[in-house]
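Hi R.,

Here's the chain you asked about this morning:
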Amino acid sequence: MSLTVADVLALPGLASMRLRAGQRAQDNPVRWPYVAENATIAEWVMGGELVFVTGINHPRDEANLLLLVRQAHERATAGLVILTGAEYIQAIPDSVIAEAERIGVPLLEQPYDLKMVVVTQAIGTALVQAQMLGRSRQHVLEQLLDGDYQSLEALLQRADSLRLPLQVPRQVALFKLQGSERLFLEQTPEQAEQTLQTNRQRLQQQLEQVLAERGEVLPLVSQGEHWIALLPAAEHADEAHNRRSLMQLLEALNPHLAPQRLFLGLSVGGHGPAQFAQALGEARQALVAAQSFPERLGLCCFNELGVIELLGAIRDRSLLDRFVADVLGALIGDDSRHEPVLMPTLEAWFQENGNLALAAQRLNVHRNTLSHRLQRIEALSGCSFTDPHDRLNISIALLIWRLSSPRSPA
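And here is the predicted structure, written out as tokens:
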């Protein structure tokens, strides 16, 4: 459980603080309070801070306040608090309020006669309490997701005491933020760490906002580069709605996360607490497919896997590896020794359902070039594209190969 901007406004002793803009983002989680002493905040925040602006140590005119609002949005802070009074910042300009509302930054006004020590103490105490409750709630959810418990009845009693709404059937959404290694290759360590923390905070905020909109909220479970959300899904219509809204989330977030990328695997819906571990397994299989197949645009549901579900049930990995080696080994070996063109050609041919013109267009090569490559594939593999059994073997081997070599969508 996290402390949100709305929770801060409801804390005892802080009734004189007012939300002036950004109501739709008031569920942003607050990691800690930060008092801004410099002209800008971009270099000094990592995401999730509730930033306080006093005007004591630096003049805060309209232009500067507008800059702070925009930097608060760029750095995924929880919100911005402007202290107003007769001595420093007399009032918040209308343009600043309008900009905060436009870009969705919670903008709070705090009167100077409300002492900062009172505010920071109230927030600090609430943060500690929220963190303790949040750890307990996450621990219960992790036990259910791992199937790591002796008595489900006892665990559900604990969940009830922690106010976890587990009566609603759920669908597991497993997110992965991929590409942190690329960040550190392309940027300085300091810049990469800043970008990584900002991306994680932005993702956390957006996911929690989506969960809040769905109702019957359960906390996000964060595990390294993975986030697990338990979405309400009692009916098939709920699953369809979850898929649409999360696809929109990926499309909105990924341009801002670059060069990192967010992938998502979804289980089927209708799972109760006793089936959470099974649902997480479904979401894991779907996530692998989302990462492996560019045409899925970064998202896959378990009920869309088809034959991939059967392949995932084969526990002896050596059987799958041997099948790939028997069918495609010669092609993979040839690509490793020369320019890798045979496996991409095979993929394009299947993706275009054997249409030579479309496959050649996909590869940006002449149709005659594609025909020569296909002939070479048949010669090396010993398979014929006109034989239905050979086509089936190649198709399944290609699926296994792609699942074992996840690549980011183009």
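One quick note: The chain has a mean pLDDT of 90.

Cheers,
M.
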